[in-house]
Amino acid sequence: MNGSGTDDVNGGLKSFYGYKETFGKDSVWVAIPRNHPRLDTELSETCMNLFAPRSNSVRSDFDPKSDEDVPFLLRHFSEGPGEWMDLFDLGSFFAVDVPLKAASSPLLLFASIALSAKALGRTRITAQQPKGSGSKRTPAEWSHKARYYYDQAITLLRQALENETRQAHASQQSPNPAIAATDAMMELDADRHPEPPSVLPRTDSDELIATTAILCVFEFLDASGTEWSRHLDGAKTLFDIAKDGTMPLSSAASGHSPMLGLRPPTSTKGRRAVFWNICRQEMLNAFINNTNTRLDTNDLSMWRDAGLHISQSGYILPSNDPAVHEPMADDMVSNALIWLMMKLVNFISAGDEFPHEMGLGVRQIALLEYWQGLEQQLDVWFEGLPHSFRPSATEWPDKNNQSNVRSATKIPLKWFARPMCASTMQSFHFAKIQLLLNKPHESTGTKHIKQSGTSSKGKTWSLAQRHASYASILRQSRKHAEEIVSIGLGLKNDSARIHSVQPLYTAGQVLGMRESTTRTAPAGEGNSPDEVDAMRGCVLNLLQSIQRETGWATEYRMQQLLEEWGLPNGQD
């Protein structure tokens, strides 16, 4: 999705993802016992610190109860940001359930309309109001409302956490200085919110957990690295203290071996939706920081409980042949790819952490074997895709229309009937590029391992073979990058478009470099200088339109591409 910029343009793909150290490097996600007041108290206090109000909090004289913009802001959330968050959830929890719950939950209401107003304040289209509304606001006015309702949501969130902490503390009947400090803080806020709701959600409620996810997207929208990271820290902690849990966060933490037998799901609809939303961000966070994921990708029972169909050998079961296996719904097929991408991120992060005493040759062979296992798992997932993950239509560019930038790219437009499937396939091609560019190689002079079912025992890896391998990687990466652009050209759904930012940026890195021309490639491969220029313009146009029409930050990615292409001022 999104990410903030960085000044380091020479550190590889991962150096451009700017949310550094979102969680502590050594932090883990653990399973919390059902009833443990001491742990609940400590973790609730941690949450209160994480959800502290910003220093530039907005004070306003208008009353939310009489604010005429609230109804259509809630509607816009349902039709806009709520759908963004529901792209990979067929249950439409955020777009449908959240607005319904907001009628009786001020916490959800304030968080939802804050995100809605912020999105409106960042769009640069003719109308600055939701469709069908009778109100017209400037971007600055929407931004002011966004900050006000954000502060309202944060205050209620802290009240809920403080209330939970006090109740847990009362059950212990022992004084706690943190409670007194929180009481004093809440008294200072009394003039802003003199009538807090009499019933606040518990820390393990769907309402509170969903609110944290919405607030994460609020900060994620404009690449607010520090604030986005702080909210993700809070979301992770809330999962820890949710005593009923969205699902077991890590069976490894309790010392039990993963169980291979299927268990009935234990999560509610809302918690599962938030869980997978956080999983996507956890995968991205680990990729950004080149660290392992907090979730244990080897805990097969946990991922089965989350809805994935996994074989005894750890592969995703196919969903295209009901006669052989019960198919997963399309959203779970998409989520299965996230699980595989988390494995890939862990592999990239591990790098050369294999024991050096094993010897260079053995270490590289072990890495290559594991890499081949990841490649096979992605291929098995791809081969088991249902028909909905194939493009429904392909439109080739008009070669006679020289004024169209796309015509020179020779890349077709691919349209999918379901936007979720289009976005998932973009992520698949993005993952394949990352896998290819992180392929280990055997040193020249060492013996081959078994590849593609044939044994080359006794033969050595020559320089010629190494060169051919590099050429193959570049060729395959270019094809996957072209697929990303093809899918991007066919995307009209805003939810899918905002999820295409990182794949498009990666495609621009692969296709926009003049070094990847036919000078070093066989005939018929690579791109001519004119095609490279057309690719650049095509990717930049797609990224620019996303920010202009949805408010989702992409400008930093465009600037990074221009710098990588040697065009810091946008001059070609």
From TrEMBL:
It is found in: Nucleus. GO terms for biological process: positive regulation of transcription by RNA polymerase II. GO terms for cellular component: nucleus. GO terms for molecular function: DNA-binding transcription factor activity; transcription cis-regulatory region binding. Keywords: Nucleus. InterPro entries: Fun_TF (IPR021858). Signal peptide: none annotated. This is Uncharacterized protein.
